[in-house]
Design goal:
nine-stranded mixed beta sheet, 502 residues, alpha+beta, 26 strands, FAD/NAD(P)-binding domain
């Protein structure tokens, strides 16, 4: 049983932030950055340092989206193995992937030192470990590929965990930090001198042209370039065929025994990721994992329960103080998409970060700043957002998009979960048939009922109820809505249509 049933992360609960206003009418800047996470804030900060007037537009509060739900590993160990990257992008591509993620970690380290940010930045080793013979053989293969790519790494049997492992790939000079403390300092450096941060301001329409126009409920922002740093780009249909949304879970509890600082990853599928962090004088262990496709499971509570059991079984922890979930966007070919959007001249995107959002988010700011300024960037070609690599990830591309097509049809044909409001438990949502039509119904604890259309406003798939997060989630491209239909996550920009029922 969790002692404090908060669904807010360790980061958001331990770092209060100042409020930023909404726009007060029309405005003109050089660049509008949509999204106030690590990719958006890093891009905006670096552009301001180059003399650009920038406006950051955040739909909710700053850093309460996916950046606030991270486990904040800063690592060169990517979700795609280096032997896969070498096969799909060539040995040079694998080397560039390693070099670019190293550059991102060093960029963070440099900004922490330059701005004197107190965020617990710490260089630590990373361990990807094996617990079975099969996992060990795969790890040996990865070690060879990682060395060729340029990582400082070695195979070892010595891993400072409180349980035995067969083998581990140890990578030197990785890092960890408190992401909100770091990024709130960057935000302070953005605001002012012709640059703006706007909170609780949703982009309702983007019109590309010369100039571009970003429409919000509070006014129109005119600019030369627009950066979409929104986890998934808003209503970019072609790019979404190469992006696959997953939910991932994390828990944190105070350590009651020693655990050496480091980044740890097991080799299970889906894998678990582990690290420590001292916050307000308390040493916490943070454990993440239990990933699954968005909108495909209603009983998401069981993923928290499994993660809590895993944490208590393996670490000196008896109490779980925080638990949270986030959205992970998997790219079709294993690397993030960073650069100019397809068929665009002035719209730039940053997405597909997998489980290494802090590293790729920072790298996005570095690449996009160079591209917007017309400078060469050594990594831009590797992460080109318009690339299509038929060999790389072809199986996943076919399977994932087949699932989208399946949900588009099957959810329309599926039977409703009931026909009567009495069948909806308090505090939960159900798809009911009312007057011959499907309706997504949420019942508050006090009995008040809210009804909305189950049709996702992105491309028309049907949403599913997420019990643990109390949200309506779309299994096709990852859009998420509040119980009453407001947008929580893109790519949708419009809420679910309200319905009147008797």
């Amino acid at each position: 049983m969790v002692e404090e049933r908060t669904h807010k992360s360790l980061w958001t609960e331990t770092t209060p932030a100042r409020r930023y206003p909404a726009p007060q009418g029309d405005l003109e800047v050089d660049v509008v950055v949509i999204g106030g996470g690590i990719a958006g804030l890093t891009t905006a900060y670096l552009l301001k340092q180059e003399g650009k007037r920038v406006a950051v537009v955040e739909m909710h509060r700053l850093l309460t989206g996916q950046t606030g739900q991270t486990t904040a590993h800063l690592t060169e160990l990517l979700d795609s193995p280096y032997y896969t990257l070498a096969s799909d992008f060539g040995e040079k591509g694998a080397c560039m992937a390693a070099e670019s993620t190293r550059a991102a970690i060093e960029k963070i380290a440099g900004l922490v030192e330059q701005l004197r940010i107190s965020c617990g930045f710490q260089r630590v080793p990373g361990y990807r470990y094996a617990e079975t013979e099969r996992e060990a053989r795969d790890l040996e293969r990865e070690a060879n590929a990682a060395r060729r790519a340029g990582l400082m790494c070695m195979l070892t049997n010595e891993v400072p965990l409180p349980y035995p492992v067969k083998l581990a790939l140890r990578v030197e000079d990785q890092a960890q930090f408190h992401p909100r403390e770091y990024l709130l300092a960057l935000a302070e450096g953005i605001q002012g001198d012709g640059c703006y941060i706007f909170e609780e301001t949703q982009m309702t329409e983007l019109r590309e042209g010369v100039p571009c126009r970003v429409h919000t409920p509070h006014g129109v922002i005119t600019c030369r370039d627009v950066v979409e740093a929104t986890t998934t780009p808003l209503n970019r249909v072609f790019l979404h065929t190469k992006l696959y949304p997953y939910r991932t879970y994390a828990v944190a509890g105070p350590l009651e025994g020693p655990l050496e600082a480091g980044l740890y990853y097991d080799s299970q599928d889906p894998y678990h990721y582990i690290r420590t962090q001292k916050v307000e004088g308390v040493d916490y262990v943070i454990v993440g994992g239990e990933d699954h496709k968005v909108g495909t499971e209603e009983d998401t509570e069981r993923h928290y329960e499994a993660l809590e059991a895993y944490t208590r079984r393996r670490f000196p922890v008896t109490r779980i103080d925080y638990r949270w979930s986030g959205q992970v966007i998997e790219p079709a070919d294993g690397l993030a998409y960073i650069g100019r959007n397809s068929n665009s001249r002035h719209v730039w995107v940053a997405t597909g970060f997998s489980g290494t959002g802090m590293t790729f988010g920072t790298l996005s700011g570095m690449i996009l700043t160079d591209l917007i300024l017309g400078r060469q960037n050594p990594y831009a070609a590797l992460y080109d957002a318009t690339r299509v690599k038929p060999r790389a990830g072809a199986k996943d591309f076919i399977q994932e998009n087949a699932e989208v097509a399946f949900h588009f049809v099957a959810d329309r044909l599926s039977k409703p979960e009931g026909h009567d409001l009495s069948e909806v438990p308090p505090g939960e949502g159900r798809i009911l048939e009312v007057d011959g039509k499907k309706v997504a119904v949420f019942k508050e604890e006090g009995g008040a009922v809210h009804a909305v259309s189950p049709v996702c406003t992105h491309l028309g798939c049907h949403v599913h109820w997420n019990k643990a997060e109390r949200s309506w989630d779309c299994p096709c491209h990852g859009a998420r809505y509040s119980p009453t239909g407001e947008v929580l996550n893109g790519p949708a920009v419009k809420g679910l249509q309200s319905k009147k029922i008797r």
